[in-house]
Amino acid sequence: MTENKANEIRRHVRKTYSAEEKLRIVMLGLKGDANISELCQKEGINVNLYQVWSKEFIEGGKSRLSGEYSKDDSKGEIQLLRNENKELKLLVAELVLENRGLHNGSE
Prior knowledge:
The chain has five helices and no strands.
């Protein structure tokens, strides 16, 4: 009975995979060192999920190579990262000044 309950809980708790994890798994499959079903079992994913990730990976590369990918798609993300970088630099500068003030005040 306990094992059945554990299996039921596992079905309801799905692991989410980052893009890096998906890429790692897809690349292992494409490398061909292991059988796809063995790889999927080892990674704890369904073969169908691997096939979806693999197809998305290949389609993404295909669209990039065919010029369908637009650099404009990432402009907003780049601007957000630039803004975040600027804010972090200001924060670091403030902390350095604060740290110097504390250090100088203790002498």
